[in-house]
Amino acid sequence: MNILIADDEPLELEQMIYLLKPHFPNWTFHTAQDASQALQLAKKHRMTIAFLDIQMPGKDGITLSKELKALYEVDIIMVTAYQTFEYAQQALRIGVKDYLTKPVIASELDAIVEKYKVWSSNHDAIQSALSYIHENYYEKLSLNIIAEKIHLNPSYLSRKFLEEQSIGINEYINNYRLEMAVKKINENLDTSMSAIAESCGFNSQHYFSVAFKKKYNQSPRQYKSSKMSKGL
């Protein structure tokens, strides 16, 4: 996951990373010294949290917040040396999650990021589920099997997987298997469709064909024929 930190003072950027890193050792930190650079980073990497200095050269943090939220949903924490009611009002109106004043105190930052540590733990669990699917897609897979392997409650895994991936776990497995099937067809056009289906975890060639056609608007054989005619 990605965290954006925008501040025109390099020392402030270093300090924020120093304070945040112990909380999110596996997250990626992106730093910017002005709003333009921050916006470019946000377009390239989907940010989960953005710590924005209100006073920066060019666009201020309030304007940057609006532009970030126009891209996608991101939790914004304002950081400023100015403890003014006007700034606080503006921040609340655009949906800023929290407000930190400089110099940033570790205990105040800890209180703000506590909820994200739970989110980070959930994210790690989903990554474990994805890794297991990717490594074992050709085996028998189900929600219960995966939940048991990564030591999670099946209902909890199902709910959190859908929240983070915006797709159910069974649908994800099916899509990944189909993607692997396409890869295997491309790698060896001589392989039979029954062998492809079996090697990708489909125990029914008929179901494989139906699912393939639904996803790619052509049957596996039609896809294979088109590749052969083009000489791949």
Automatic annotation (TrEMBL):
Keywords: DNA-binding, Phosphoprotein, Transcription, Transcription regulation. InterPro entries: CheY-like_superfamily (IPR011006), Homeodomain-like_sf (IPR009057), HTH_AraC (IPR018060), HTH_AraC-typ_CS (IPR018062), Sig_transdc_resp-reg_receiver (IPR001789), Tscrpt_reg_AraC-type_HTH (IPR020449). GO terms for molecular function: DNA-binding transcription factor activity; sequence-specific DNA binding. The modification 4-aspartylphosphate is found at residue 53. CDD domains: REC_YesN-like. It holds the Pfam family HTH_18. PANTHER family: ARAC-FAMILY TRANSCRIPTIONAL REGULATOR, REGULATORY PROTEIN POCR. This is Response regulator. It comes from Lysinibacillus capsici. The lineage of its organism: Bacteria, Bacillati, Bacillota, Bacilli, Bacillales.
